[in-house]
Design brief:
By secondary structure, the chain is α+β, with helices and mostly antiparallel strands. The chain has one domain (2-68): Alpha-Beta Plaits. It has 2 helices and 4 strands; from the N terminus they run βαββαβ. It has helices at 14-22, 39-52; strands at residues 2-8, 26-29, 32-36, 59-65. A 4-stranded antiparallel β-sheet has the order 2-3-1-4, covered by helices on one side. Helix 1 packs antiparallel against helix 2. It is globular. The two termini are 19 Å apart.
Length: 87
């Protein structure tokens, strides 16, 4: 499946969350990741993220799609991280 993941994490925890998400997805902008991931890997990522998060203050939002071809991506301005699969 293809996902876009966005997080809003407290300053003390943001470095750990960044490192975790980079293990599973492609970093595209501050606190935003995208990429293909299996259901099992996504569950693993969410489990590990919950270990880092303070669920009273932090949030993790995941947009899912069966295939990245179902999404149109448009970047206005500088693209922070380019991926070869997007034309």
């Amino acid at each position: 499946m293809y996902v876009i993941l966005v997080y809003d994490i407290g300053e003390k925890r943001v470095g750990k969350m960044l490192k975790l998400c980079r293990q599973y997805l492609n970093w595209i902008q501050n606190s935003v990741f995208e990429g293909d991931i299996t259901e099992v890997k996504l569950k693993e990522l969410k489990y590990k993220a919950k270990q880092i998060m303070d669920e009273e203050y932090d949030s993790l939002i995941i947009f899912k799609s069966r295939d990245r071809n179902w999404l149109d991506k448009e970047v206005v301005g500088k693209e922070r991280s380019t991926l070869d699969r997007f034309l």
